[in-house]
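Quick one: structure for this chain?
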Amino acid sequence: MKVLITGGAGFIGSHLAELLLSKGHQVTVLDNLSTGRLENIAHLETEPNFQLVVGDILNETLVDKLVERADWVFHLAAAVGVDLIVKDPLRSLMTNIKGSEIVLEMVYRYHRKVLITSTSEIYGKNASGPLKENDDRILGSPLKSRWSYSTSKAVDEILAYVYWKQKSVPTIIVRLFNTVGPRQTGHYGMVIPRLVDQALKGFDLTVYGTGLQSRCFLYVKDAVEGMVRLMEHPNAVGQVFNLGNQGEISIKALAEKIIALTGSPSKVVYIPYDEAYEEGFEDMQRRVPDISKAAALVGFTPTLDLDGVLQLVIAHLRDQMASVLRPAVVL
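Got it. Here's what it folds into:
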């Protein structure tokens, strides 16, 4: 297949590109490098079936040309991370909603198959669980920028579903739950790389709120494997699927585990949400996925537990720090 990945220089997109290339597909990555990074895909540049196009998802002419050349489209391009969303909600809304609208219109024009990546943020403050794909969304005030990302991704899902129902566009929606692994950065509020970086540098680990809020963390290679399996399966079209791990842990316990695994002298300190983000910031206290739907259709099962993922992230960040400290060789 000829595959287009929007946002393919990002953390998840780069791992998806690797997997698709290993399966013999031709991969084109579209990324404006605002949050994606060239170093994520530098090792793919020599692959004959790989191409990077630096450009914006909001450029309709460019997206038109790239979708026309593709058989499959994985739409990952989005404004991501709590920090970015709170600081620039307008960019989040425009990139996510308008970008998805452009992609869906082009896949309709050229009769292509598309997978839209959504998020567990869809469920908002719904703390029941495990959360099924048809469970209710519970959100705070629309005047709180915290919920702009959830709202924008809900619009993405509605657009994808309507394009399927009204225009027969083969769309698949995937809701990713806290996907983690090597290459993820803590720059945009991603908790694991941020805490690991602090631990390795001997800084205090900053936990927001009480630390009793819990999450489940999915290894990125498991995530992209699930995405590709769903894209390959004809019965996934027109449906939405949770992809996540069900190993639940509080953020306080996560920070303590990271300290233990790194052997760091650091301690855990707690920062109120109002100081970390903005006044009146709201968080979800629990987020656990029901993954039985994806498991039943394509055999989706996470292969790596949290300890295994943390060991990989720790090794990756240690290697990065060592490369920065390593003296240059003068020839």
